[in-house]
């Protein structure tokens, strides 16, 4: 990524092979996942929250094989198949070699190919952290997930079911069969129906679409329940907990999220915008679920690395069913 901007801000270049420092592993990348955050970063939408040192190698998640380890690395040896959601400030997944702190890496699920494993870390960690940690979903609860057919949604439906919930989701007819096969009991076609007219008394909502959907999610919750969003506007909790931000950013996000928080208060429910955090330990949880047959990856399309521009053009249309991945 050479600058902030449109698709032309990313170009294929030769860069030096990185060397692993203390506590880091060098990974020969076999495949890398694409995420909306990658083009939001490229467009400069997150630059107030995270300044990047451009030019840099972009890319948030990968699968590959450990090529070398730095001093003090204990959990990995050369030849291990691994996957990771890389450090948010360093990125680096869109290259044949990447260096990642070992605490962010995990052994790849044994039952997956590199291409499927590459699309799991970012979306999987997001769904796990939102449902298990923020919503604390419990057996028998009813959970609403907007945008169930995308990268995060396809994993979130399955993780909510694993935690014991009954799931309602929104999808177009193109995604309905998929989300039902993953465990969604109620599927609402967002193009012809408003979910707020069909659902009530839900125990929690995980918002993946933002905008009016986020506001409407407050209306379908029990009093005291909560919406966790990854597509709305960050708030003071995001600033404090996820970003470790100073008073200026915290104040700015408090103002920016005021309308949403007011809407939630009026319905007697909670609101929290979550920025997922990279975690090797949480990746181990996901890998175990995959290997036990409890979590299925959904890969929509795999492009050769050289066609990463086309891969982004496809993702940016916003209709991917599951994940878009590039293969080295
Ligand atoms: N804060 C964080 O840490 C974090 C982490 C991960 C993701 N996110 C955000 O979460 C959002 C979802 O990410 P993703 O990777 O799942 O995106 P994605 O894979 O691009 O999502 C595409 C899917 O969304 C569906 N969709 C589009 N508009 C919809 C609507 N109004 N209602 C229901 N479904 C709709 C599309 O279905 P149809 O084509 O059939 O309409 C498509 O299947 C993005 O905004 C992303 O930036 C944030």
TrEMBL record:
TM region(s), chain numbering: none
Enoyl reductase (ER) domain residues: 5-326
InterPro entries reported in the protein's UniProt record: ADH-like_N, ER, YIM1/Zinc_Alcohol_DH_Fams
SMART domains for the chain: PKS_ER
A Pfam match: ADH_zinc_N_2
Leader sequence segment: none
Xref: PANTHER family: ALCOHOL DEHYDROGENASE RELATED, RETICULON-4-INTERACTING PROTEIN 1, MITOCHONDRIAL
Protein name per Swiss-Prot or TrEMBL: NADP-dependent oxidoreductase
Species whose genome carries this gene: Streptomyces niphimycinicus
Top-level taxonomy: Bacteria, Bacillati, Actinomycetota, Actinomycetes, Kitasatosporales
């Amino acid at each position: 990524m050479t600058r902030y901007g449109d698709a032309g801000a990313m170009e294929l270049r030769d860069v030096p092979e990185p060397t692993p420092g203390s506590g880091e592993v060098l990974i020969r990348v076999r495949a890398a996942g694409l995420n909306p955050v990658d083009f939001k970063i490229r467009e400069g939408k997150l630059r107030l929250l995270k300044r990047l040192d451009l030019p840099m190698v972009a890319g948030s998640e990968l699968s590959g094989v450990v090529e070398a380890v730095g001093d003090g690395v204990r959990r990995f040896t050369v030849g291990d198949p691994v996957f990771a959601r890389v450090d948010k400030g360093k990125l680096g997944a869109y290259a044949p070699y990447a260096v990642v702190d070992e605490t962010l890496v995990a052994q790849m699920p044994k039952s997956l190919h590199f291409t499927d494993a590459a699309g799991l870390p970012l979306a999987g960690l997001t769904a796990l952290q939102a449902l298990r940690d923020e919503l604390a979903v419990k057996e028998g609860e009813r959970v609403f997930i907007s945008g169930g057919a995308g990268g995060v949604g396809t994993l979130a439906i399955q993780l909510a079911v694993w935690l014991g919930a009954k799931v309602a989701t929104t999808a177009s007819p193109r995604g309905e069969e998929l989300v039902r096969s993953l465990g969604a009991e109620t599927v609402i076609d967002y193009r012809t129906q408003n979910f707020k007219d069909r659902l009530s008394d839900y125990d929690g909502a995980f918002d993946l679409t933002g905008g009016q959907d986020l506001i409407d999610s407050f209306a379908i919750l029990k009093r005291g329940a909560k919406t966790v969003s990854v597509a709305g506007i960050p708030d003071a909790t995001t600033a404090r907990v996820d970003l470790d931000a100073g008073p200026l950013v915290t104040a700015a996000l408090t103002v920016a999220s005021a309308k949403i928080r007011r809407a939630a208060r009026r319905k007697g429910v909670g609101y929290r915008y979550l920025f997922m955090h990279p975690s090797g330990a949480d990746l181990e949880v996901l890998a175990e679920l995959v290997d036990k047959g409890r979590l299925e990856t959904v890969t929509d399309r795999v492009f050769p690395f050289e066609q990463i521009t086309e891969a982004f053009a496809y993702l940016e249309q916003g209709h991917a069913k599951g994940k878009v991945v590039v293969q080295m």
